[in-house]
Amino acid sequence: AVVSTQSTGSKNKQILDGDFSLRKRRKIEKKTKREISEKRKQKKELFEKGRVSIPSLNVVHERDLNKVATRGIIQLFNAVKQHQEDVESDVDSEEESGDVESD
User: Fold this and answer.
1) Which of 40, 38, 41 is nearest to 30 (CA)?
2) For 61, phi and psi rounded to 5 degrees?
3) Is the pLDDT of residue 31 over 50?
4) Which residues pair with residue 52 across a beta bridge?
5) What's the pLDDT at 52?
6) What span, in angstroms and rounded, lies between the C-alpha atoms of 68 and 53?
């Protein structure tokens, strides 16, 4: 319900009853939330399109393969770290003994 009309410059504003305005605003927000939810759902469906779920029989096997791969990666990183430390200690020992030639 319109309570009054204000004139500010070239624009006329209608002052609405607070309750009516609030109900209308909530209805619009609810609509937009629903639209956002639908868009998210459509986006997820599009993203999931073409994916195949793993059959339940292979889950245990896949988990075991994942564990083996993780252990292998850890061993690789540990070996690289050890090699870097060895090279660094060799360089330090050569610098201390004066074997390193400078240009």
Assistant:
1) 38
2) -65, -45
3) yes
4) none
5) 77
6) 22
Alpha-carbon gap, residue 75 to 16, rounded angstroms: 70
Task: Could you list the beta-strand ranges (E) of 9-103.
Answer: 11-16
State yes or no: pLDDT of 85 exceeds 90. Answer: yes
> Which segments of 9-102 are extended strands (E)?
11-16
- Euclidean distance between the first and the last CA atom of the chain, given in angstroms as a whole number: 90
Q: How many CB atoms lie within 10 A of CB 16?
A: 15
Per-residue confidence band for 1, with pLDDT thresholds at 50, 70 and 90: very low
Q: Which residues does 7 contact at the CB level (< 8 Å), separation at least 6?
A: 13
18 closest CA partner among 31, 30, 3, 8: 3
Position with higher pLDDT, 87 vs 99? 87
β strands within 1-99, DSSP E: 2-8, 11-16
